[in-house]
Amino acid sequence: MIAALAALAMLGLAAPPASAAPADGVAQAVTRPVKAQPHVSPEQHDEATNQARRAARPKITAPPARMGTSAACWTTFNPSNPQGGPMDQTYKNCGTSTVWVTVGYGLGNSRYAYIGYCASVQPGQEVTWNLSSTAPNSSYVTMICESWTLSTGVATDVPCYTTFVPGSPQGDPMDQYYRNCGSGTYQVLPGYYKGNTYHAFVNNSWTVGVQGKVWWAYPHTELGAQYETMFAI
Known about the structure:
This protein is mainly beta. It contains one helix and 17 strands. It has a six-stranded mixed β-barrel with strand order 5-6-17-13-14-9. Strands 2-8-4-3 form a four-stranded antiparallel beta sheet, with no helix packed on it. The two termini are about 25 Å apart.
């Protein structure tokens, strides 16, 4: 883990767009629901929809990472307050180990991760992402891309939005459940933050329709971390 990774920039003052995903709620710990066998079904994981979303993402600078000393350490934004317009986000790795990072942002109580734009950045290198537009009233960050492939599948009988079993694992295994009680279809993935560093499990996204349910199983958890369900872009 690197220290002080995510430099934040508050972007715009407009109200959140009407299409924004519902705020993520954390329910109380519940009796472990019965899990279906992990599988991919058309309504739960529409790959054609996911491919279309990936194609619509902002274009990344080529090459994805470059050596340089011009950028300040960690994360910088140009412009710093784009008001929904284009923005360049640059991450410079001033640590001592290689990291895998991507762009993300927070909007209200929800977190969004650009899961198709992870870049491997060695010490002293920097990567710039060119965003053709930004979300007003959001805080952009650089996220760590977690490469784990978690056990996952369709869940049953879980409350709306996000539930954890157990609620406080203290480093032990944990199951995370998400039920979409909103009015649209969302692509979701697990993640967590610890301090001001955000982590997205980019290999574990699911497309979940209205009232769709999904679970992920962590073999262990990070002490002191706050887990959450993120939305994929």
